[in-house]
Design goal:
Length: 142
Amino acid sequence: MLTTLLIGGAFPTSASAAKWHKGSPKALRGNFQAKRTSSAEGFGAAFTLIKSRFEMGVSNMPVQIMSHLKYKKIGKHLYRLKGHIAKNGFILARNADYAVYRKGKTFACVDYGYYKKHGFSKVNHAKQVKHFKNGGPILKRY
């Protein structure tokens, strides 16, 4: 029995928070909607995250659909999410890299390069919703 414990303890485990994982983390999945930033917008930014796809929609713009997802946990409630955005209308195909934050029903998503310099400052945080709504309050920035 002692030999089994010694041999079993000699091999390191392969699970690591710094490792890239396929898909999206369960902690981030759901539907989220931010407040509008101007009266010209019909609805605030909408985000849908499922296992294999991340969709970002802003009023008056084509939906950005990111697939081939992989993620890495980079902090408490904070993930780095990479994938490929497909061409849709005037949205060009490209690889994308985002920093995504979720704590409770609060969600924020920003380009990873911006996050490295500024964090989540000046980011319109979204709230978890069951159904997306048109209209709604306008976020006032002073």
